[in-house]
Amino acid sequence: MSFYLKGRQKLRQIFCLPVRFPDVHNSQSWTRLEAGSPELHLVSHVDGRDSYTRGRIGVESWDIFFRNTNAGAPPGTAYQSPLPLSRASLAAVAQAQPNVDKLVEDHLAVQSLIRAYQIRGHHVAQLDPLGILDADLDSSVPADIISSTDKLGFYGLDESDLDKVFHLPTTTFIGGQESALPLREIIRRLEMAYCQHIGVEFMFINDLEQCQWIRQKFETPGVMQFTNEEKRTLLARLVRSTRFEEFLQRKWSSEKRFGLEGCEVLIPALKTIIDKSSENGVDYVIMGMPHRGRLNVLANVIRKELEQIFCQFDSKLEAADEGSGDVKYHLGMYHRRINRVTDRNITLSLVANPSHLEAADPVVMGKTKAEQFYCGDTEGKKVMSILLHGDAAFAGQGIVYETFHLSDLPSYTTHGTVHVVVNNQIGFTTDPRMARSSPYPTDVARVVNAPIFHVNSDDPEAVMYVCKVAAEWRSTFHKDVVVDLVCYRRNGHNEMDEPMFTQPLMYKQIRKQKPVLQKYAELLVAQGVVNQPEYEEEISKYDKICEEAFARSKDEKILHIKHWLDSPWPGFFTLDGQPRSMSCPSTGLTEDVLTHIGNVASSVPVENFTIHGGLSRILKTRGELVKNRTVDWALAEYMAFGSLLKEGIHIRLSGQDVERGTFSHRHHVLHDQNVDKRTCIPMNHLWPNQAPYTVCNSSLSEYGVLGFELGFAMASPNALVLWEAQFGDFHNTAQCIIDQFICPGQAKWVRQNGIVLLLPHGMEGMGPEHSSARPERFLQMCNDDPDVLPDLQQANFDISQLYDCNWVVVNCSTPGNFFHVLRRQILLPFRKPLIIFTPKSLLRHPEARTSFDEMLPGTHFQRVIPESGPAAQAPAGVKRLLFCTGKVYYDLTRERAARGMAEQVAITRIEQLSPFPFDLLLKEVQKYPNAELAWCQEEHKNQGYYDYVKPRLRTTIDRAKPVWYAGRDPAAAPATGNKKTHLTELQRLLDTAFDLDAFKNFS
Ligand SMILES: Cc1ncc(C[n+]2csc(CCOP(=O)(O)OP(=O)(O)O)c2C)c(N)n1
Ligand SMILES: [Mg+2]
């Protein structure tokens, strides 16, 4: 046993505190005390309990305590407030203290002491149910916590002060009705509030009202009371939680399920948070959680039909839906039901997640924000989120920090998340002391001033109490809060895993540990709250439910992943989940609409608003473009957004500096130059009854923010949600969201998502960073087969291709095509993620303009922009057909003009790289029978599009001709850091592209 426990034991003797054993509800421990165990004898010996019980102020409560404990009350509830002290007697005692200076000093000392407990009491709370570990990784007792009488000296006090009465400061509630207490009683009450089974960490919060609120919740004497009804409900919930795991273990002993054994209290804990939140008006809870206990949460919190869970264990069942599916402990769920405790409707959604721990955190936040947004819940009173974490992952994964930093930002806040940590004090095989540098796994939450409630999970009532307080905190302050369930993991990491290899002593202790259900049932039986037959009846009732569901699960013939959908889109699909059509209307707009949007985009639509002179010039240039019936990149985006808003589509554009635009081209938020923080978003002044436009500069995060926007886009198909990277290459810090959610999301979870990624890309001599959005990676993850030519005669070939793909990858060379692809994203009858490599220099390139004519009704997004110059007029004479995508097109046309090769070389742009436009490209190739084919790109050969395009082009032409390469050599870095080398490389690739003999030697 650690020094700490020894120290605490001594303290408990001096202050007559109950000695807490690891097995906190083991009534034998308590009886032993009463029966005159050596410890108790020592108590008598040191201070003489009898003698100082008699006639001393404030110690009656200890008699009550021991009496109640003896009668079977659990430690947390045995304590009751002492009888009120008469004011006269207190005053008399106070007056009897002669030395005023000493009096003042002592009062100040007592104030410090109270504050010390409030700040550091949690370090000595009895948090580990096993009694062998320190939840804060430190066995020492802080110097200012009174673990023995000699520590009173720290405050200039001594044993003789223990019975002096001190006025209590307004920053404590330990007095209850009393405003003064003897020091001994003050310490005892502080011990009761801060050093038992609950460790409250909150004094870092820099808001007095919030601190007072928490102090009141934990310090007020007798505050933790439960009715018998509540105790019975708690027991019944523990029965379900425990017996569910036991049932799975019995039926499928060799299957991984990441059981909850050792933290069964999680189920009643979550239910308490939900009950309390429902009572406070919440009707939609969105949850995210890792593997541990997930099936149990689905069964007993979300209330997924048990047979649906059980049939996931049947390896012979085939999946009925499209997609490749996912393992059972990753699937999501959506369920609407009546909350039995509050009798109110409640919708619960558990978001599907990958193995990647904590990756779902921002996704849950984003979905919650969206659900709040769509139901007008501006303060988070109706919709809330609960996030569950493992201790190792919570401390180790950076995304946790990124997500916390979204929690209070106006465009990202969900007005408070309740975080619950299943702190089993181990991560797979790694001990906490090797897994984190912070005392607690929860310290990351301190950055946002979230209170943290650590609680010993073997004290179910203490757990319920902190969960109630957490839910109340959220509904009072609308800020994040953390419940740290300090527990243990009864089995290995999964049920097949041997934990004794690495944690032998811990697991020896665990083998001895009585399950919490058994302990709590014994306690309630001892208290007379339930009797043994009632308890047994509760168990057999639930076992029967499981058995019956198991029998029904045998009737299931196929698995429906659709049953595990976390975000249904009612009305968007047909009843059997199909798109309502397989076509896409024209994405063009009438001249009037284009002109109107253009005019608003080039004006300041509010009175007395002074914009910057430079911006006036930009808007003036926009106005001229509109007069000339032309758009540049920024205006094209405006046209797409503005028109969709008119059609009732909400638009949300988020990312770093998106309001102005990294390249200062967008200017969607105007700033009054004379009035601080006065802004205007012209896009919201376009139409009466338009949908709202949200444009928000994000925190400097990619992983967190992209995850958030993905979650936002999950909530509704009738919104265009875009995330823009500052530069395309920065998306790789969000790679997990791309790899785990965006790319395979539909295949794993039958959940569509229409998120748009805007990734600035292009080799502009800016060095290895800021150049490449890594198109090769996105293209490599496309699910189309490079070697199989699809059926080009298929009706609506282009739309079917889109329907079958996992995401759409485009690189538009004109603003008009950018406009069309954004609108198509919403006009399609289904949703797919859209990856757009967006330009930098083209934002201002004089040739990168589109006439209104190409945006009028009847026009469409062009997947391929064929050659339209002289070469197209006399195709037979064309010697080379160059394919390219994006900005290099402008370099190629300039070079071709300079070389006078307009008749010999045709240049065709592939605007939609994936799904690959086999049909249109076949036509292009057939049009130029005498041309050799070459792919030209500015990216290095092992990067960019070449590896994706080449085999597909070869398949298109049945491998009849080679496809040559004109571009940079392979390289490790995306671009050179040397401007001159950049230009030399560019010239070299242009030389190759237009040297008609370049590939002769290879033929
Ligand atoms: C990002 C990530 N890295 C590694 C893993 C592999 N892994 C799965 S569970 C686990 C331990 C998690 O420990 P903890 O968060 O404490 O949860 P517990 O399993 O103890 O409930 C690890 C390392 C993972 N799933 N995700
Ligand atoms: Mg753990």
Structure, described:
The protein is of the alpha/beta class and 1003 residues long. The chain has four domains: 99-219, no CATH class; 228-563, 3-Layer(aba) Sandwich (Rossmann fold), CATH 3.40.50; 591-761 and 811-854, Rossmann fold, CATH 3.40.50; 864-994, 3-Layer(aba) Sandwich (Rossmann fold), CATH 3.40.50. An eight-stranded mixed beta sheet has the order 3-10-11-9-8-4-7-6, sandwiched between helices. The chain is built from 36 helices and 28 strands. The radius of gyration is 34 Å and the shape is elongated. Magnesium ion binds at residues 390-392, 424, 426-427.
Q: Please state the overall shape, judged from the principal axes of the Cα atoms.
A: elongated
CATH superfamily of the largest domain: Thiamin diphosphate (ThDP)-binding fold, Pyr/PP domains
The residue ranges in which pLDDT falls below 50 over 5 or more consecutive positions are 1-14, 16-84
Assign the structural class, choosing from mainly alpha, mainly beta, alpha/beta, alpha+beta, or little secondary structure.
alpha/beta
Strand tally is 28
- Biggest sheet, strands in spatial order? 3-10-11-9-8-4-7-6
Considering DSSP H and I runs of 4 or more, what fraction of the residues is helical? Answer: 25-40%
Oligomer: single chain
Keywords: Acetylation, Calcium, Glycolysis, Isopeptide bond, Magnesium, Metal-binding, Mitochondrion, Nucleus, Oxidoreductase, Phosphoprotein, Thiamine pyrophosphate, Transit peptide, Ubl conjugation
Subcellular location: Mitochondrion; Nucleus
Catalytic activity: N(6)-[(R)-lipoyl]-L-lysyl-[protein] + 2-oxoglutarate + H(+) = N(6)-[(R)-S(8)-succinyldihydrolipoyl]-L-lysyl-[protein] + CO2
GO cellular component, one term: nucleus
